[in-house]
């Protein structure tokens, strides 16, 4: 690819003797062993997220039925705590 002489005002290192020298784009880095491990495995994250959802539903329903905030928080925590081992057994490797 040749460039005309009237583009001579460009003073870039890629322009040498009227020929534009281009470089190939660099590819994105390939994930390898240098990548850090995730904070939580996917299975653990799914179990904890689902348990938190179950606890939130239990707490919300308790609050709507009784109107007691402390009892609703306690019911939500009990629901979360009881659902973690159950979900851990249900969701396989």
Descriptive report:
- It is built from 2 helices and 2 strands; from the N terminus they run E-E-H-H.
- It has 93 residues and is mainly α.
- The protein has a domain at 41-93.
- A two-stranded antiparallel sheet has the order 1-2.
- A hairpin with a 2-residue loop joins strand 1 (15-16) and strand 2 (19-20).
- The mean pLDDT is 82.
Characteristic terms for this protein:
mainly alpha; single chain; elongated; two-stranded antiparallel sheet; 2 helices; 93 residues
Please sum up the structure shown:
This protein is mostly helical and 93 residues long. It has helices spanning 42-66, 69-90, and strands at 15-16, 19-20.
- The N- to C-terminal Cα distance equals 57 Å
How does the major sheet shape up? 2 strands, antiparallel
Radius of gyration: 30 Å
Q: What is the count of DSSP helices, taking H or I runs of 4+ residues? A: 2
Proportion of beta-strand residues: under 5%
Query: Could you say which structural class the secondary elements and strand pairing correspond to?
Result: mainly alpha
What do the pLDDT scores average to?
82
The number of strands is: 2
Q: How is the largest sheet built, in terms of strand order?
A: 1-2
User: What is the H/E order?
Assistant: EEHH
This entry's quaternary arrangement is single chain
Proportion in helices = 40-55%
Shape: elongated
User: Which stretches are low in confidence, meaning pLDDT under 50 for 5 or more residues running?
Assistant: none
